[in-house]
Design a protein that fits this description.
The chain is mostly helical. Helices cover 57% and strands 0% of the residues. It has 10 helices and no strands. Helix 1 packs antiparallel against helix 2.
Length: 225
């Protein structure tokens, strides 16, 4: 049985806490980097919780899309609860870093040498089991694997660089009709019958494209448009 993401997040924080406890760092310069990693791990867990609330599948491409494009025009009032939760999570992340700092100042009683050697593997395992780390690796791999510009045809024109042709005084407008969740499967009469006869008839007299490949960042409505 698979462990739910929340359980993995808590397991990740528990493993890191245990590893920091066994590390027994006496130097302040050794404790500070570990505390920074602990706080970063907590922030990553918080980001996963918030992202999963909206996407239902953790941190995916749509999260980075909205962070890069911006949230202009979004209604923030209806998300006041999520904003308060984000503020609370920030406080908890800082508190977790403080707890880890104080734990590393204490010496564990009857701590064997073998237990001390387990500190570093525990710290690394905490990042390995964290679902947020896996999501970031997956999104990064998708963008590295598929270079959107490497397969564009020579005739592709960058948006905003179109120039009006000479002799054309009244260029035609382009009307884009975006049919939400409509796909070619619905044109298969063996599966859905005569579901969309008008669209099927229009296709026979129009220019239709098939075998279209999906690039990263285009599998949801706004990103695709």
């Amino acid at each position: 049985m698979m462990v739910p993401p929340v359980g993995l997040l808590l397991t990740s924080l528990a493993l890191f806490t245990l590893g920091a406890l066994f590390l027994r760092a006496s130097s302040l310069w050794l404790r500070l980097p570990v505390v920074a990693l602990a706080t970063s791990l907590a922030f990553l867990c918080s980001a996963y919780v918030l992202a999963d609330h909206f996407t239902g599948q953790g941190i995916d491409e749509s999260v980075f899309y909205h962070l890069l494009v911006g949230l202009q025009g979004a209604g923030f009032r209806e998300y006041s609860g999520e904003i308060l939760l984000a503020g609370l999570l920030v406080v908890l992340c800082l508190a977790y870093g403080t707890v880890v700092f104080h734990l590393m100042r204490r010496r564990v009683a009857k701590c064997s040498r073998l237990t001390q050697w387990c500190a570093l593997p525990l710290l690394l395992l905490a990042w390995f089991v964290n679902p947020a780390v896996g999501d970031l690796a997956t999104v990064g791999y998708q963008y590295v694997l598929a270079d959107a510009r490497s397969s564009l045809p020579d005739s592709f024109v960058e948006p905003g660089k179109l120039e009006r042709q000479e002799g054309v005084e009244s260029p035609r407008n382009l009307v884009l009709i975006y049919a939400e969740s409509l796909e070619r499967t619905y044109l298969d009469e063996d599966v859905f019958g005569d579901l969309m006869p008008r669209i099927a008839a229009r296709e026979s007299s129009a220019l239709s494209f098939t075998d279209i490949r999906q690039l990263p960042g285009m599998w949801w409505t706004i990103g695709g448009m």
